[in-house]
Amino acid sequence: MSKKLVVLMLVVSVFTVGAYATTFIGIGAGKYLNLEEYGVDSSTSLVDWIEGRITMGSGLTFDLGVALNPLDLNPAHQVQFLTYLNLDIPISNFEIYAGFSPFLDIEMGQFDTESLKSIGLVHAGLAINIQKIRIYAEAVKFLRYSPFNLFPYTAIAGGIQIGF
Q: Cα(64)–Cα(55) distance, rounded to whole angstroms?
């Protein structure tokens, strides 16, 4: 089976699942935890990024988001697109989830193809659903493809979404 057919089947299945489940739309924020150990000062801001996120599906969920640096909200300077595909385990009003996203980054108006080819994002989190409100908290790690390993620093993110 060709790679294009597999990708097409995956995209169709994600949107089909999303069509029969609640779609959540909301905002969130994130912070890198231990960058100082690697010579980067991230103490100047409360959060390192703000994001808008749409979550669709049940069991197999899809997150689509856009993240910006709150100190420079000009999307022409830097913007990250989040396209997480998640395995989601619902337990009553809670969800435990884990997922992967390629690193889709635009800096200074240019799409960063090197990052796309070499880095991905993995995340794991917990969400609570109350009525049509979803609150999530997660840990995020960068994943290097070659050699295959996780970057040493971790980020945390959280947010609130409203369901439709």
A: 7
